[in-house]
Design brief:
This protein is an alpha/beta fold and 168 residues long. It is built from 6 helices and 6 strands, in the order βαβαββαβαβαα. 39% of the residues are buried.
């Protein structure tokens, strides 16, 4: 069964781009995706819809179908210096699963993406912005390192969004 707003094949007009922040605000830097989405929601001229899903990644099933572009923001252990932002495709995440230690909900994200793909209504372009955490432990708030880079991350997300949309 396809989502109600989809059509057979890829003939549907792609919807507005979307930025989705996922993560757990109660686990320090694990909440970076959500915090970044909250910041981006205040950008009135952002040419995309912005959602914060927290750990409820099953919500991807209602947000991603038939989008022209989707950016997912999350905490990802990549072996990079803390605070690094690296962009991946879903295929790269699948290929590097053993090397990447994603957040606790990553399996659900990949499963949702695979189901959307099987239904034939996946976004035409999907990128995952992984941010290397400094500290993931129980507690509210990001580490000072990531908190201090929120505005920089927001600029990088906007820049990536514009570049991807220009390259359609």
């Amino acid at each position: 069964m396809k989502p109600p707003d989809s059509t057979d094949g890829n003939t549907a007009q792609p919807q507005r781009p979307v930025v989705v922040g996922v993560g757990n605000l109660l686990m320090g830097d694990e909440g970076i995706g959500v915090r970044l989405a909250q910041l981006l929601q205040g950008y009135e001229s952002l040419p995309a819809d912005v959602y914060e899903l927290g750990t409820g990644v099953s919500g991807l099933m209602s947000i991603l179908p038939n989008r022209g572009l989707a950016l997912i923001l999350d905490c990802v252990y990549m072996g990079e210096p803390p605070g690094s932002l690296v962009w991946f495709t879903a295929e790269q995440v699948r290929d590097r699963k053993e090397q990447l230690r994603w957040s606790l909900h990553h399996g659900s994200i990949l499963e949702s993406l695979e189901l959307i793909q099987r239904l034939g209504c996946a976004p035409r372009r999907l990128l995952i912005g992984g941010i290397q955490p400094l500290s993931v432990k129980p507690g509210l708030g990001l580490s000072p390192l990531l908190e201090g880079k929120l505005e920089e991350y927001a600029r990088l997300v906007v820049k990536r969004l514009v570049r991807e949309e220009e390259g359609r």
